[in-house]
Amino acid sequence: MAIIRRRRGSVSTTTVTIPAMTLSYIALFAWTFVVLFPLYWLAITAFKTPLDVNGGPFCIPWRDFQPTLDSWHYIFFDLREDTFRPYLNTLVVGLTSTAITVLLGSMAAYALVRMRYRVGFGAIGSFVVAVAIAVVLLIGAAADQTGIEKSLRASSKRARQLSLFTIGCSVLSLRIRISFNSVWRQFKRLRRENAALFPKIVPPRSSNRNVTLPLPHGLFCTDCGWNGDQYGWPR
Amino acid sequence: MSLHASPRALRTAAAWWRPVASRLDRVASGVFILPAVVVILAFSIFPLLTSLYVSLSRLGFSQGGVELKFVGFDNYRKLLFGIDRPHFLGVAGPLTPIGIAVLLAIYGLFAYLLYRYAFGPNRTLGGLIGRLLATAIAGTLVWLIVNTILTSGRPGTLVVTIVYVSVDVAVQYLLGLGLALLVVQHLPGRRFFRVVFLLPMMITPVGVAYLFRMLADTSKGPLYPLWAHFGLTDVSWVTNPWGARLAVMIGDIWQWTPFIFIVLLAAIETLPHELTEAAVVDGATRLQVFWRITFPQILPATTTVVLIRIIEGFKIVDLPNVLTNGGPGTATESLTLHAYTIWRALDIGGSAAVAYMLLIVVTFVGIAYVNLFRGRATAAA
After folding, report:
1. What is the pTM of this model?
2. Cβ of A53 and B220 within 8 Å?
3. Distance from B254 to chain A by nearest Cα, in Å?
4. Average pLDDT, integer, range A97-111
5. What DSSP string runs through A134-156?
6. How many Å from the N-terminal Cα to the C-terminal Cα in chain A?
7. What confidence score (pLDDT) does residue A206 get?
8. Residue B45 with chain A: CB contacts under 8 Å
9. ipTM of the complex
10. pLDDT grade, residue B145 (50/70/90)?
């Protein structure tokens, strides 16, 4: 056994034999070369003049070409502000977004793990109102950007239609949920009483599942697809 | 100064604090979750609805500015059946015997899987409908891929993106897993390798694209001696469609293998040693230890990291944009770059429609992947 050695009565799975170690090092150094060579090329290119860059493959400094700090001087002194501004932007955006994401994400994750939430009428109503407001804002913003009265009027009309459509869908989904819940409660009661109601239609695992709310569930799935989250996907 | 409070003061403070604490407890659930909900509404739902509306509109110039004209599904029709179809879906050629064989093999596999599920013990009505739907969509995608790649046709941006994702994620996973298994051994200097292997992930994709643009240059790049040895200095491999796609894929594999490597390394390092030691004592070979113990235990991490890479892979834009500018022609354009190029041409509605098609494809692939693989992987672990 290559990876095992008995030492003072104990078993070690971490010791590596010489041939295995050699092969491992060959593979590791090969990938190290694959990783480092492009970076080396990037680094030496930073010390070349445009003539050296376009003149042919010059690989070794002081032999193939004379390293120069011209490029660095150009970005830090000639361009100066045009270099530091993007750097600062990156720093600010990176740190701020990370901080906000970690804060909000950890709060939400903690809450979802430790607290129980029920999607009630208030939450659904708030959601519907928020979506409707978002739609109105969206159309308003689009109309505002165009700066055309005609567009504004048409968009406002569209906004009303879309808002009504959204609210209609939500109310419909709410009604579906209420109906489903009612049916579900009756079905569970009948199952408790061992009544044979549609035994072939109802899937065996479905007794562990909740009837889902069509609209929020769909939006949640869409959002999860958008964000790469997996928890909203139906199983 | 003494900090001791009198019992009466403490009782008063407690009496004052109790209702406040109780109220805080009641509102805590909302306070914790609401900021995230508001952010999701503002930055996910709102842009989602915005782009949906824009995808159903056409930007037109008019007196004093521009206007968004509602055109229904015209943008989608244009992509799937109209003038943009060759760009988006590609051009199908006559099927070759190889193409027919591949199609038959894949459709046969789909049929077998469906049959096995339909007559298996765990079937459900929802599961069957979901699988039928997934099979229909996957079958269409396979037909599209075979008809544009294995024929004299030309793949569109949808197929090119699927090729990028499939090849990139597969190679990245194999390399990342292999490197993780090598580094997890107790070798001298393994910390050095661990740090070095992470370096590509820290470079901006635009930088990587410029880097590979230099490396791919056969006359001035560092690999010139190699090309000269094979007499290929006059050949620009990024002018060949598959050569250019290969260059993009190599760049992506180089950059994102470290991500899979570090996740799998963390997963392997946290595995308990007892099982491995017991297997070794029982005489298991190294390969058996890997297949029977290590691999099943890292499956949850594997499926998660692959899912993340699939979703990220579908959004590839920097590398083809900078490295080949989508060319030659539109050979290396990904879906995101497609959306970007037609956005630059001020076809905002068409751009949003492409973005929505991408969202639909990613959602379908993600859901199918999670349902077909992740549940089983977690159960197996």
Report:
1. 0.74
2. yes
3. 7
4. 88
5. HHHHHHHHHHHHHT-HHHHHHHH
6. 43
7. 37
8. 130-131, 134, 219, 223
9. 0.83
10. very high
